[in-house]
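During the second half of the funding period, the structural biology subgroup turned its attention to how the target accommodates small molecules. The most pressing case was iron/sulfur cluster, which had performed well in the primary screen but for which no bound structure existed. We therefore specified the complex as follows and requested a full 3D prediction, including the ligand pose.
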Amino acid sequence: MEGTFEPEIIVFACHYCAYAAADLAGSMRLQYPSNIRMIKLPCTGKLEVIHLLRAIEAGADGVYAAGCLEGECHYLKGNLWARKRVNHVKDLLAEMGIEPERVEMYNMSSAEGAKFAAAATEFTQRIKELGPNPVKREGVSPHAAAREALGGVAMPDEPLASAAAIVEEGHAE
Amino acid sequence: MTATEYKAGSNLEKVLASGAFAVTGECGPPKSADGSVIEAKAKLLKGYVDAVNITDNQTAVVRVCSMASGYVAQQNGVEAIMQMTCRDRNRLAMQADILGASTLGIKNILCLTGDHMSFGNHPQAKGVHDLDAINLIKMYKDMRDEKKFQCGDEMTVAPELYIGCAENPFADPFELRALRLRKKIEAGADFIQTQCIFNIPKFKQWMQEVRALGLHKEVKILAGITPIKGAGMANYMKKFVPGMDVPQEIIDRISGQEKGAPQQAEGKKLAVEMIKELAEVEGVAGVHIMAVEWEVAVPEIVEAAGLLPRPAVA
Amino acid sequence: MITAERKPLDEILELVGDKKKILVAGCDTCVAICLTGGEKEAEILASELRILAEKDGRAVEVEHTAAIRQCEWEYLDMIADKVAAADVVLSMACGIGIQSLAEKFAPKLVMPAVNTNMLGMPQEHAVWLERCVACGECRIGLTGGICPVVRCSKSLMNGPCGGSHDGLCEVTGPEKEEIECAWALIWERLKAQGREELMFTDRPPKDWSKSSSGGPRKMVREEAKPV
Ligand code: SF4
Ligand code: SF4
């Protein structure tokens, strides 16, 4: 079972740190599982309890938020709010008899590509061990559902920058 | 003083009126329908105290009611001071009970707010708190002196009551305490029993304020004493009992002795010394010895304090 | 404002029983401000119920909605269609809103999803403190604007009990938090107002017939009734 189960994981990543870290990981050609699907937010502070729940409801096996390092949020405290909300969702899941470990909060700076890759790897492994979300809906895409729940809050999906693009941007600075 | 001048003519009232130094004790009724417990405690205290407080669901734990227990105590030769808390009864019940107690021959009543339900064994209970202790004192005084129920209706035979209340000289705001005592006296308190005293200097400071207001002339003040059974108990009281002020040197003195009998002996010795010291304080009319579940220590303490025999008043 | 707390999920499930079409109805006034029963929270509860049903393999339909105020007939009209379509309505309004809903759409099954707990004020963001129990005979003019009925654990009228210590009440709150002694606060306030003597004036027993002890209360303003 464990061998065949490929979890579907939704990552809510902030524009300034985690998403940039993901970009960097890409440009560094770091390996991490392809199970994660990202949704970019201006800040994890925009993430609400219902957004996490919607992803679980739509069948996501795991959901995590990735924001800036604590104390270094571009919007000051957005990532701290996100952590509180993630913790609250953990409580709600526990009340429902679902493993609270299916949701998590990670912090990283835009320069920490390796940390992004490590988080993705660790979380995917964790979900593989937990097994599938007991809530499974045929034909429903957790990614699309989470996006829809976020409405205008989510930033457009864009392919992660290629290594070249990153290098270019880096040079441009 | 002729008999007719007494408010209730209870033994306690007469002893205090005679100017003798009064001694009261305390008896906690059992947590079961075992009347023999009260009987035994009463027999133990008989002749050593002028009256004994019968607690009313003390610390919000259900026990035999204070009216029945008070009756049993009196049957066994010790006058009762029936305690009544505002926590468990509304004004109807409190008036009905005092009429009942009076018909059973109980004359001394102690009006209390009562420990909060959350301390006891039924923390989910609905607290009544229809009246507060001051309202209660006034209500009983009006029943006794005006023959009136709280609603204003008249009654034919008034209960004969000697009305007391408690006061904690160590509670906060400290500056308010003596002034609040005056309020209780104005409401109709005839005597007060204080919370147990361990911090004598602070008690003396409070008494000074009481005297400055002339209150010691208007009310009989019985100083509360609790003999310490061991260092554990002293520590517990210091930490967990609200409004209890136990100085460190007292704890040190008790814990300086071996556990068990030596600590108990020291506790009794300390109680005797404190009684003697408190008796010297102007305005202190007696002591109230609260030997919580240690009633057996009382006769010895009273004797060692030189308070025997208890006066026989007609 | 009126505050409420959500009931535990298990209790809500028990109230819903085996009903198939569930409407979670929030209220966007008091309970929304106290972050318990507004549209947002209704949506969260609805999502939880769907997740649970899916997990346990039960086929239920859960929808959510919110009325601007559940405690007024007019606003209830706006959610009438959704209520009509449901087998059971889980109301997240205060006890008043829940009853209004239940009365308006009787005999529709309407269940409380929250416990209405107090008339409180937000002391700081997300912290509410009880301030009034609507006793019907307000006495705070005599107590420096601090309510002795609800802020004193024993509703004392004549000053602090013997358990008051360092400004704190002898009672500790349900979350093991310290409670301020109302009478210590009153004393300080009266001193600051130069009205200490109020502390020593005898306060007669309260007239509880004006509170819920007098039976359900009714208020009529004749001059304002429609002609
Ligand atoms: S006295 Fe009565 S009306 Fe006034 S604040 Fe207190 S509970 Fe409310
Ligand atoms: S400590 Fe203060 S608030 Fe608590 S019951 Fe006593 S007087 Fe009331």
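Two results from this model are relevant to the next phase. The radius of gyration of chain C is 22 Å. Residues C 152-154, 156, 160-161, 163-164, 169-171, 181-183 surround iron/sulfur cluster (ligand 2) (CB under 6 Å).
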